[in-house]
Structure formats: structure tokens, C-alpha cells
Amino acid sequence: MNRSSPxxxxxxxxxxxxxxxxxxxDDITIRNPTVGAQAQMRYxxxxxxTSQTAVSFSSASSEGYYSYLWDGAKSExxxxxxxxxxDETTTGTxxxxxxxxxxxxxxxxxxxxxxxxxxxxxxxxxxxxxxxAGQETVPSSGSSNLSESDIESALEGVSRNDQTTKQSRYSAxxxxxxxxxxxxxxxxxxxxxxxxxEGDVSTDEDxxxxxxxxxxxxxxxxxxxxxxxxxxxxxxxxxxxxxQTEEGKTKTFEPERANQWEVGVKTKLFDDRLETTxxxxxxxxxxxVRSSPDNPDVxxxxxxxxxxxxxxxxxxxxxxxxxIIAGYSYNDSxxxxxxxxxxxxxxxxxxxxxxxxxxxxxxxxxxxxxGFGIGFGGNYASENVIMNxxxxxxxxxxxxxxxxxxxxxxxxxxxxxxxxxxxxxxEYYKGWKTVNPQAPRSVKASASYSF
Length: 451
Hints:
Elements: H1 12-15, E1 30-31, E2 34-44, E3 49-70, E4 78-105, E5 108-125, E6 131-137, H2 148-154, E7 163-181, E8 184-200, E9 208-224, E10 228-239, E11 244-246, E12 249-251, E13 256-269, E14 274-291, E15 299-316, E16 322-337, E17 354-363, E18 372-381, E19 384-389, E20 393-397, E21 400-411, E22 414-421, E23 429-430, E24 436-437, E25 442-449
């Protein structure tokens, strides 16, 4: 969507978008191969202390042609098309060492976790720049689709990136859950993070380092042990902000801060056949970078966003072989202090206000159907306002409900699963200032063997 001009449509229906119409030929493809590996080792140092070591590696690439349509606001149904050839690889390496203990201090039980962690991320970017490749109309005018030769012509002579960026994070943390009496436990933890960005390895101008502390505290009260628990916690989080070049100088920022308060209750009833968790949270994100109201070319760091909500999750096993899982969430999010165009509005990245999910599965345990299982469930999301600005207006994606179903058979070491996602072939969308059609009905089959 155009983010600087008044919207010409406010819903997908008004836009006239058809997710079944291809705007490119079949030879326009993009591959996203991923590889991941992890190794763990646990070692009992003593009866009360355990060492846990984890090493992981990941790699993700994008290879091929990428295209998108942009509302250039030239006419109600005309969209400019832009293309790029993608060639980018991201690799990550992580090493974590934990020491886990169960010790008695001053007559109290203490569950202690202390550890260190190292993470390194490397991005190799050989992408081409974006170039215009004609226009399209929505709804489609029936014109020929974009071909590989069209993209090659559009990208002829375009410059390509040749950039490698690196960043590292060094962390140390400790947590202690103290059981004062069986009905009362308290928790305190502290995490220290040192973030080191090399940025573009060919220059030192975007390098920066930041060190930040994050505390967390919690309490659990059990008025009815093993049946009802009441909990509350406070957690502090942060996100590093990269330096920016303003007025010919490099400007650095403090990390953005998030402070979360949460209270709730957990229950286990009817011989653990019904488990429920209900919680209320309040999150304030402060120190957000925004444009100065006096000079839009200068950034200041006083933005604030508040989110409040309720979450409910339930797991039930009313009869032998039947399991039901359900969840509900409500989120009220608002820009408390930001640019004038967004002030007082729901953030565009907040997503739907209401989410509901449910899944029921029944497994037969006797007779001719012994080993067979059936499942059915779905997900609901309310309206999602993906553009919400004073100068452009609002664009909303419709609410949707998607159903899924499965059939399985398990015997001994073998298991076979057949699952249908989006059972009714529902047309629905997600996005953030973009309109992204989601997958139609699909059927997945899998087989596994355990030994």
C-alpha cells in the first residue's frame, strides 16, 4: 500500500484483488532453503547440580526473483510493479552453557539456573536493487504475465549489493526460584547482554556496542495445592536500536524498553482432566525512536506504546481418548506518544484484536478402529487494521475463520498422519501495510517410525 497518499480503497473487496490471478509466469520462482542443527549434552556434576551444554547452527537463504505491486496513487486500479533478484544468506551460531541446581539455603528449596550464552549472526547480501517493470491493474486487465526475460530486461545494468554484515551477542544470566513454604514460591532473575555490531564489515561507521541489564521477578501462591495457583510477575525486555546518520553525523540511541506486568490463575481440576490458565497483562514499550515534531529529519527517543490484554487457554480430557485444546486472546494496543499521524491509534503492527483457536482429537483404543485417530479444529482472527494513519486513512483486512482436520493411524513404532489445512478453502489475508494472500486448502501426509 502507498504509505504517503490517501488510500483509494479501504478493504480487499474495494481493492478488487483476486488471489487466484498470477501476475507472473511459472518460471518466476524464489527458493528459500534452510538448514538447522543442534547438539546437546547433559552431565550430572553431583546429585544436585547438572551441566547442560547446547550448540546450534542455522542457515537460511533467498535465491531467485522477488516482485511486488505498489499502489503509486496514479489511478484507482493501477499498480506499479517492482522486481529484484535475491541472493542472500544468513547464518547463525549459538553456544549456551547452563548450570542447573536444586539446593537448600537457610531452610528453603532453591531451583537455580545460571549460564552464559554466545550468539553470532552473519548476513551475506548479493541482492540486486529494485527496478520498475511496468504496471498492472487490479482487478487484472488480462494483460500478459511477467516473464523471466521481462525481469532480466528490467534489471539490465542495475547495481548489485556486495555486503557482508556481522553481529554478536554475549549474555550471562542467573535465576532462582525459592520455595518458602509449599504454598508460596518467589522468583528473581537477572540477565546481562552485551551487543556488538560490526555492521558492514567494509566500514567502521555503522559499528556500535551496547550493554543492558534485564530483571524479572515473580510470585506463585497456591491456596489449593495441586489444584489452584495464583501467579504474578514483572519482566523487563529491550531491543537495540541501530545508529542513524543525521545531519552528517552518526547518532546512537539507547535500547527500547518493554516493561510487562502479568497476573493470573492456573487450575487443575477433576483429576487433572481440566487444566485452565487465565491471565491479564499490561506492557509498556518506551524509549521508541520517532521523528521530532520540530524537525522531521531529526530523530528523538521518547515514543511509547501500551498494550493490555487477556489470555485464556484450556486443555480438557473429558473421556478416555478425547483431548480438547482451546485458546482465546484479547489485545488492546495504543500509541501513547508518537508521530502526530499515529497518535492515539492502534499500531499497524499490533495485528487482530481478538484471536480464538480450538482443536479436538479422539483416538480409538479398542475394536476394529484401535489405533485410529481423528482431529478437527480451527482458528479465528478478527479484523486487522494494517494501515492506520491520519493522512492516509485506514485499510482493514477482514476477519476470518479457518478450519483444519486430520486422520491418523498408530500401531507399535509406526504412525501415519493425513492432515487437511484450510478445509473449506477459505480466502483470507495477513499483512502489515501489505496485502498477503494466505495458503489455500492443502493436504499433507507424513509417516514416522520410532525405535
